[in-house]
Design brief:
By secondary structure, the chain is of the alpha/beta class. The protein is built from ten helices and eight strands.
């Protein structure tokens, strides 16, 4: 916290923060908002999903009159639109791709597997694409830990991201993955939101996501900036 206050005292041009931490500094008066020209809410839909609505409104209340508010999201559900309407006047809607349109740079696949062969299927997919930087999604922290352990025992260079990890550990895992020291990163949906590693060539869903928006965000970790990618969903026969 002391390092943060010292950095803020130097008057940075850009501040990047989680909603809770930013609101804490605003409440303490650590940040002078009088000259703020723009507020950007990245992954706006996810912030609303996990209960940051009140924090976001409180943050925006500190911004001066005349500032611009940008809401960024790969999906635009009704809740995000309602928030946009409440904090923006005469907003401009900008789309990188048409909403609902599939990314043509991603090859989408489904693999039917036995429920007891899920990790074996992941291993086979990794062996079939030996050069691909791969992001594997697990549904829970326990799933992530087990998959990462099994892949490590199979001699893959693997790391993990999940909610209980502190920021230093997350940064270390992401840095190793980005550099290529880790070929595989196993993560939960929450931990993987916002990961921007352009070399990710393969996304594997160890279990299907619970809704379409989650699939959009998961698969969108590959096929970025004009690169080609593959998204494979493992579906158990019992789930059909």
């Amino acid at each position: 916290a002391r390092d943060e206050r010292r950095a803020l005292a130097r008057g940075p041009a850009v501040i990047v923060a989680t909603p809770g931490r930013l609101l804490d500094h605003l409440t303490r008066g650590s940040i002078d908002t009088s000259q703020v020209a723009a507020v950007v809410l990245d992954e706006a839909d996810r912030m609303l999903d996990i209960g940051f609505r009140d924090d976001l409104k409180a943050i925006l209340a500190h911004a001066p009159t005349g500032h611009r508010t940008h809401l960024m999201s790969a999906t635009f559900p009704r809740e995000v639109r309602a928030l946009a309407d409440s904090v923006q006047d005469d907003a401009v809607h900008v789309e990188g791709t048409r909403l609902g349109a599939a990314n043509v740079d991603i090859d989408h696949r489904i693999h039917l597997v036995d429920s007891h062969e899920r990790v074996s299927a992941i291993i086979n997919l990794l062996l079939a694409t030996p050069e691909a930087q791969t992001l594997v999604f697990g549904r829970t922290r326990a799933d992530v830990a087990k998959i990462a352990k099994d892949l490590s025992q199979a001699r893959f260079a693997v790391g993990s991201l999940s909610g209980e990890m502190d920021q230093i550990a997350r940064n270390r895992a992401l840095a190793a993955f980005r550099k290529g020291d880790l070929r595989v990163l196993v993560a939960t949906d929450v931990a993987a939101r916002g990961i921007d590693v352009q070399d990710i060539a393969y996304v594997i869903h160890a279990e299907p996501p619970t809704d379409a928006d989650s699939y959009t965000h998961r698969s969108g970790r590959t096929g970025r900036a004009g690169r080609k990618g593959t998204s494979s969903v493992l579906v158990t026969l019992a789930g059909l």
